[in-house]
Design goal:
Blueprint lengths: L2 H12 L8 H22 L3 H21 L3 H25 L15 H22 L15 H11 L1 H22 L4 H25 L1
């Protein structure tokens, strides 16, 4: 038997291979590349509003990836929670803090290379962990859905209760931070309030002197 026939027989025996991708796998790769590009633009653009809008594209791409993995419930949670809540919260924060609409040169940081190194390291570690954990795992697209509400609920509340509660505390902290930022006054408003308080104090002092 020739080497090519041997490889073909081995691939047939062990399951699908990377040399014969299906349409779903090709779509998954293309959507993943588009999502990665949107994420890179999100963290590199100097326009805050554009960054929030590109974040919508990135999170929407993640939701599409979940759909391609037959995890419809997780995909809709991604849309409802992140696209419908977190991004809206960010946009409201930008509007309430009077963020500039155009380019913001001060939005950049001098620690760009440090941030890039941390991002590359974290991404490589995540890819290695996922590849090592699911190296021989294949999703049967024709079989029962693995991302249904029942399966997800059983796994979430049996094995991931502590991270789930920690995530809820994190979202609560983000909400409190948004409230604090929205109630913060600008320096001009603080100066106007101080001037008004000083004027009221002088008026009260004059009234007291006139009465005496």
């Amino acid at each position: 038997m020739s080497p090519a026939a041997t490889l073909a027989a081995a691939g047939t025996a062990t399951g699908p291979g990377f040399l014969s991708p299906t349409g779903v796998e090709i779509a998954f790769l293309l959507v993943g590349l588009a999502t990665l590009g949107a994420a890179v633009i999100t963290v590199t653009t100097k326009q805050l509003v554009h960054a929030a809008l590109w974040l919508v594209v990135a999170l929407g791409g993640v939701a599409v990836e979940y759909l391609l993995l037959t995890a419809e419930f997780i995909a809709w949670v991604q849309v409802l929670i992140y696209l419908g809540s977190v991004v809206v919260l960010l946009l409201f924060g930008l509007m309430l803090t009077k963020a500039p609409i155009g380019r913001s040169p001060d939005a950049d940081s001098n620690n760009r290379w440090v941030a890039l190194g941390v991002a590359v390291t974290a991404g490589a570690a995540l890819v290695w962990v996922v590849a090592d954990a699911f190296r021989t795992t294949w999703i049967d697209l024709d079989g029962p859905a693995q991302g249904s509400t029942k399966v997800t609920g059983e796994i979430l509340f049996q094995h991931w209760v502590l991270p789930f509660e920690a995530l809820s505390v994190l979202l609560l902290a983000a909400l409190i931070g948004a409230i604090v930022l929205s109630r913060r006054n600008t320096p001009a408003e603080d100066a106007a309030a101080a001037a008004a308080a000083a004027a009221d104090g002088q008026a009260d002092t004059g009234d007291r002197k006139g009465q005496s």
